[in-house]
Specification:
12 strands
Length: about 180
């Protein structure tokens, strides 16, 4: 294992534990409100939103508000090593890693992706769970605006970056919205 991979593994464990201490319904509500009152919500019509689990920033309110506003909402569906973007439906099944996902659905493309993360640095480098699903998806769909949802305590100065990592374009926390160049 190369030094960067070993370093990332260690950081994943550290930030997974840290995120557990940051979770709060109040913060989730503040993050949702920041998104829903931003130009990201008003200027775009189609959204690829993760279905939150565990200590991730919860996305239920965001999904409900997007649907109520008549926006198209899609969610991840994982089959094997690939993640696709499929329309949201109430009919869900357990997929990879126990994450709920639609039973089927035709792959589509959205303008904005709201993505989970364990940590993010001040340059927009995202530390995920290590499966590479989002990086592979974004490599195939480079025009999708990548927006991370996180708690302020998940932001760090610098993370190791590999050639295949796709950085975020923006980050929303309870403290505000940050855009990366």
């Amino acid at each position: 294992m190369c030094q960067s991979a070993e370093e990332k593994r260690s950081l994943r464990e550290q930030f997974k534990e840290r995120r557990k201490t940051l979770v709060s319904q109040e913060k989730d509500g503040e993050i949702a409100q920041r998104f829903l009152s931003s130009e990201l919500f008003t200027q775009y019509h189609s959204f690829f939103v993760y279905l939150s689990i565990g200590s991730e920033v919860h996305t239920r309110e965001i999904i409900e508000r997007l649907l109520a506003a008549g926006k198209r909402v899609c969610v991840p569906r994982v089959v094997g090593r690939e993640m696709t973007c499929v329309p949201y439906t109430e009919t869900l099944e357990k997929g990879a890693f126990g994450i709920m996902q639609p039973k089927g659905g035709e792959e589509c493309e959205c303008e904005v992706a709201l993505v989970p993360l364990l940590a993010v640095d001040r340059q927009g480098v995202r530390l995920g769970y290590g499966g590479g699903y989002y990086d592979r998806y974004f490599a195939k769909h480079p025009n999708v605006l990548r927006v991370g949802l996180a708690y302020g305590g998940q932001v760090t100065n610098r993370l190791p970056r590999e050639e295949t990592d796709c950085s975020l374009h923006a980050l929303i926390t309870e403290d505000g919205i940050c855009y990366f160049s």
